[in-house]
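Next comes this protein.

***
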Amino acid sequence: MQTMKFIWFDGKMVPWDQAQVHVLTHALHYGSAIFEGIRAYACADGASAVFRLEDHCKRMLDSAKILRMELPYSAEQLAEACIETLTANKLAEGYIRPLSFVGHGEMGVYPGNNPVQTIIAVWPWGAYLGADALEKGIRVKTSTFARSHVNTCMSKAKASGNYINSILAKIEAKEEGFDEAVMLDTSGFVSEATGENIFIVREGVIKTTPLTSILGGITRKSIVALARDLGYTVEEQQFTRDEFYIADEAFFTGTAAELTPIRELDHRQIGAGHAGPVAKHLQKEFFRAARGENPKYAGWLHRYTV
């Protein structure tokens, strides 16, 4: 990771290497934190834009509500702080990571009156799953780890502790030579990846997992809207991994992954074994929207200059 100049920390710009917490911070021991992943894009007109910034900030407040964390900021204030952090670091394009966590105080599972602290960091970040992934697609495997039951870990909260499940699945996939893992829910249906939502294309229909066992991805929501606007049929429907095997195309979506095609699952080639026509079409239109080249989606962008 490339270090930057400042991190926004509880309302102040703090030098990057001075943004520190105590080793007895509650979140470090128990995972009591929430976060967002957001991207800023350099636009064709020379300005920059954060993609769906307000939606991300609203989702962060939803996560806080689910975890009973009191944040002293509104969605608008969080959005302003993200822009402030980008401009302070003179970053025209990159990744934004807001994080709120239960801080140092009483120890034990119960967070009590420990303070809730918030940071926002930004840094340059390219293709999450590799430079060639957006064109060639990636190899994935079905994880031996199931996605947590919806009444075990709250799936609608983007909570740090939930990602232990993803970490285990990702390590397993990488150690076996794959790029990413597909996770099934506790009923055996395809759920999501370790940090991405999943789409398949079969016989002209695009399918994506319904909002049952998954985090409702903002990129997922954007791709569904784009696809329908482009005339595709999109169904939010459960599907099995053997239906995945015989899909004509498949792809992941997410802030980090953007739209990444899948060329292989469990040693079975998906479609033609590279990015298919639907994925390439949606990928092109997604980047046009994110970079301010399609005025229809101007409302998705929060513009700023550095």
Observations:
- The longest helix spans residues 53-66.
- Helices lie at 26-30, 53-66, 75-88, 133-136, 163-175, 218-229, 241-245, 277-290.
